[in-house]
Specification:
Layout lengths: L1 H6 L3 H8 L3 H19 L10 H14 L3 H8 L3 H17 L8 H6 L37 H10 L1
Organism: Amoebophilus asiaticus (strain 5a2)
InterPro entries: Transposase_HTH_dom
Protein name: Transposase Helix-turn-helix domain-containing protein
Amino acid sequence: MKYEQTKELEEEKFRRLTGIKRPTFDKMIAIFNQANIQKRTRGGRKHKLCMEDQLLMALEYLREYRTYFHIAQSYGISESSAYKGIKWIENTLIKHPAFALPGRKALRKSECGYEVILIDATESPIERPKKSKDTFTLEKEKGIHSKVNLLSTSKAK
């Protein structure tokens, strides 16, 4: 079990591993246990992983963006079980008011003033001189005459 290994970690290392502090982790576990009780009243199979391991799996996904296949292999479950477990964890956290973010209306009502700076990043063509055959001349090199000289001598003949 992954959770059994993380119990022994120091607070700093636990935060580096999961991205959250241990009290936040414990609060999340309490929320998931309540939600799991409500979910199991309707029936269904019990999940292979304990709640703590499911949360660690979801945090690992969110923190490292590993694929569901790799996470499933790490935890010894199928890829679809990893997907369903992570989605259930995410949706449960989103619905709970302790982890809800304020909406747009709350941000508009706040006393904080926001300063917006707009930068015009439209593309504009670079002004360069037009290329023509008159501007190209070949240097005299190893007995080869320049292109202009060759053209002028061939016209003279």
